[in-house]
Design brief:
By secondary structure, the protein is mainly α. It has helices spanning 5-20, 30-46, 48-63, 97-114, 116-126, 141-165, 170-199, 204-214; strands spanning 72-74, 80-82, 133-134, 137-138.
Length: 215
Amino acid sequence: MTLSPETNDIARSLLAYEAAGSTSEAVQSLAVRVCEKLRGPLCALAGVVWYRTLIGRALTLARSQTNSLGDFQIAENGSLQDVGKSSLQSDRHYASEADVLLTSHSIGLILSLLGTAVTLQLVQDVFPNLTITTESGTIRQFEDILKEVGYLNSVSDRLELLAGQHPSVEEALMSVSGSVRNTATVLEVLAVIKKAEEDEPETKTAKQERERYMN
């Protein structure tokens, strides 16, 4: 699996964020802590079996590039466990090559399976106030979400066209088309609200009005 520069940048940003929040009591490596924080939301989204498969694949790919992960095993709940004296233990406040590789392959697989918009939104939820930077600058995750919105709307349009061409499954196709368009609408509202919050922090009154409207 070839990792893109953007994938590596996201991984390094996550590791740096986790390192900045480290305490003297921290014992797990940075990569394990990042994966552990992502495990809960991803298991809730796609299931424990799916997550164990994903993290297992990421671990296999990372092991093919470094010898520092040989003592790691995956528990039934998907958590990573170091059953030996891994060299990562001594680097718990510093992102080693193995940390970067394991995190990068994990993010790369998540991106390939969930897409950019969902992945970045999930990362943003798990790591609040995280700024992801690449060689070309800061990743505009909300712009990426809006691109996905456009893609979903085009899919909905194509399904409606197919519905007109296939009367025997017209009702089913129209139902799927509506579901896709509803998803696009939810993503668009989410992106617009979040982007507005980033661009200009809302007042308490404005926030109350928005919450009242959303409810």
